[in-house]
Amino acid sequence: MKTALITGVTAGIGEACARLFVADGWHVIGTGRREDRLDALAAELGRALTPHAVDMRHRAALEAFAAGLPPIDLLVNNAGYATKADPLQDAELDPILGMIETNVIGLVTLTRAVLPNLIGRKGAIINLSSVAATYPYRGGCNYAGTKAFVRQFTLGLRGDLQGTGVRLTSIEPGMVETEFTVVRNGGDQAASDAFYAGTEPMTAEDIARTIHWVATLPPHLNINALELMPVNQSWAGFAVHRPEA
User: Which candidate in 135, 137, 143, 196 is catalytic?
Assistant: First the structure.
């Protein structure tokens, strides 16, 4: 039986991944901050899921957690969040720093800590980046910056791990309707609903199936980066400011 470590399984893509990998016969070690949701998922999936309440912002806790892991075949770095899409000059600093701690520092800390484990198994790492890493938008500089780091970190780490047999992939989704946007809007479900209205966005299950496909490819094949969008999403034109005369 193969084992996957999936971060952020208490909602969205991480939760969908946990269900899909368990259904395919994997054992899943799932992390999250919300213990009640972890317990509920563990009750649903049974012994196939080992839950761990871990906060990605706490370096010492991450390192202690990694030190106690059994052999793993896959790390899915899914945990992350975004602050409100405010221009930097109008944004509060503390939420931005918390996002960087989660999306960047926590991801690097956990990845480094589990590398000996994965190298020993010739495993795989799948990191959740975003199309925001490539296509900028107003109010997204902080979130996009973290996801650009994730993309480049993934590609660079491939070079570091050349010859070890470890595979690395950056998954870069566009619009996916999950709790993510509700959280980004301060819990405003109506704002999230309005954002996705009429767009036929991707689902958490769509991305989970993509991650599962990458993870189960032949071991000699590596997908470096994979960008996904719903059909109704594309690129915006250049923004041009025309001051009034």
Answer: 143
